């Protein structure tokens, strides 16, 4: 009595996508924008960073009583690696009863930068909030403090206050700078508001003649997560065509094709990369053979990719690799090779199902003693339906 053929197991790694990690992680690096050194005037004209701001700049100046303490704070701030002293002096000035609002706002801003440099983001946010609430700095300093506060809040996943501060910053400054729009786009992406992120990112990209590639990556990820694969494919193809030798752009295209269920195009792109010698890592070879494994009639391609990867030492002879090889050999009717691969995969499997598949194939090939041995090994490793193995063991 012949038993049914082994099930074609869906490989656990399947489709590798870049959108949850690399693409987005590089899109915007949060950075604290250093305040102008004390906001002090000098003979050169100070750059007006926010010419369209709706806020009227305060007329407040440093108080005469605090000039000495402010001067000491400025000197500490300007000295490299002196963040601890800067923070201490800033806190002391903030506690001074004779300090006016400008003195305190300046101390808060400089202290916040020092705290940030010391990786004390909680204190940095607290001081930045003070600087904004005091409303005494010039527009350059005031809005630098506001956007830095928003950045740190969003970085700490404090989305409600972070987005509120970022929206306030954009509204009051009337900024259409692509860098500022990208910050909002990434924040919306972090909040999983992909549909809202897309138009913001598109506006940022359209507002500059040379948008960064990772901005496109963030837009690509947003489109994928918003279930707009056709648009994502179009952008990914443009990025790949623009950078034909850029491995990251090509792999992003592969992942986009996979998300759009265009596995033939994903495989073709990976094959071009293999021919060009661009597949150099285990995950890349695995992505190619797994793509083929999920396509009908591509068993020979799976075998070719896996064997090449093993020969080059790029692929490890682990469970997933041996299982893919076994299935590809079996469904291309190369039974002895399939058995050999299953014999390597079964001991590495997390349970006894692979041993059971091996037992079934061995039984079909009339290798009865080996089939029974494999069935016993399957029972030892654990099965959902142990009766299947017991039937093989019990048969004459």
Q: What portion of residues is helical?
A: 55-70%
Tell me the distance between the termini. 10 Å
Q: What is the averaged pLDDT score?
A: 88
Instruction: Give me the Rg, rounded.
Output: 31 Å
Q: Uncertain runs with pLDDT below 50, 5 residues or more?
A: 1-5, 8-43
- How would the global form be characterised? elongated
Number of helices: 20
Order of helices and strands: HHHHHHHHHHHHHHHHHHHH
Question: Strand tally, please?
Answer: 0
Structural class: mainly alpha
The largest sheet, given as strand count, sense and whether it forms a barrel, is:
none
Strand content: under 5%
Q: How is the secondary structure organized here?
A:
Elements: H1 22-25, H2 67-78, H3 83-94, H4 101-117, H5 121-134, H6 139-155, H7 159-173, H8 178-190, H9 194-206, H10 213-225, H11 229-242, H12 247-259, H13 263-275, H14 282-293, H15 299-312, H16 319-331, H17 335-345, H18 353-364, H19 368-381, H20 386-394
Keyphrases for this structure?
396 residues; mainly alpha; 64% helix
What does this structure look like?
By secondary structure, the protein is mostly helical. It has helices spanning 22-25, 67-78, 83-94, 101-117, 121-134, 139-155, 159-173, 178-190, 194-206, 213-225, 229-242, 247-259, 263-275, 282-293, 299-312, 319-331, 335-345, 353-364, 368-381, 386-394. Helix 4 (101-117) runs antiparallel to helix 5, helix 8 (178-190) runs parallel beside helix 10 (213-225) and helix 14 (282-293) runs antiparallel to helix 15 (299-312). The longest helix has 17 residues, at 101-117.
């Amino acid at each position: 009595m012949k038993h049914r053929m082994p099930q074609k197991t869906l490989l656990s790694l399947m489709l590798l996508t870049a959108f949850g990690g690399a693409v987005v992680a590089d899109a915007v690096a949060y950075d604290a924008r250093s305040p102008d050194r004390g906001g002090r005037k000098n003979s050169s004209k100070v750059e007006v960073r926010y010419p369209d701001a709706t806020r009227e700049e305060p007329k407040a100046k440093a108080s005469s009583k605090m000039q000495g303490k402010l001067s000491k704070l400025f000197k500490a701030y300007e000295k490299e690696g002196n963040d601890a002293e800067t923070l201490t002096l800033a806190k002391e000035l903030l506690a001074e009863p004779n300090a006016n609002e400008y003195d305190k706002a300046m101390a808060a801003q400089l202290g916040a930068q020092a705290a940030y440099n010391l990786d004390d983001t909680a204190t940095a946010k607290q001081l930045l909030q003070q600087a904004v609430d005091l409303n005494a700095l010039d527009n350059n300093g005031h809005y630098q403090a506001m956007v830095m506060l928003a950045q740190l809040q969003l970085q700490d996943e404090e989305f409600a206050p972070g987005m509120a501060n970022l929206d306030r910053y954009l509204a009051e400054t009337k900024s259409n700078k692509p860098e500022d729009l990208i910050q909002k786009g990434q924040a919306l992406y972090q909040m999983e508001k992909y549909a809202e992120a897309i138009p913001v990112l598109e506006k940022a990209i359209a507002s500059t003649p040379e948008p960064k590639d990772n901005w496109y990556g963030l837009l690509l990820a947003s489109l994928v997560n918003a279930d707009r694969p056709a648009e994502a494919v179009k952008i990914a193809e443009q990025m790949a065509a623009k950078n034909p030798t850029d491995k990251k752009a090509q792999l992003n295209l592969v992942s986009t094709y996979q998300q759009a269920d265009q596995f033939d195009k994903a495989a073709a792109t990976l094959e071009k990369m293999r021919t060009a010698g661009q597949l150099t890592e285990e995950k890349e070879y695995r992505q190619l053979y797994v793509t083929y494994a999920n396509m009908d009639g591509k068993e020979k391609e799976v075998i070719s990719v896996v064997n090449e990867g093993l020969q080059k030492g790029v692929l490890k002879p682990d469970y997933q690799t041996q299982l893919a090889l076994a299935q590809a050999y079996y469904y291309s009717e190369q039974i002895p090779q399939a058995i050999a691969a299953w014999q390597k995969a079964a001991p590495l499997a997390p349970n006894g199902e692979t041993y059971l598949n091996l037992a079934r194939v061995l039984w079909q090939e009339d290798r009865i003693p080996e089939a029974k041995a494999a069935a016993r090994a399957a029972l030892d490793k654990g099965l959902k339906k142990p009766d299947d193995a017991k039937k093989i063991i019990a048969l004459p």
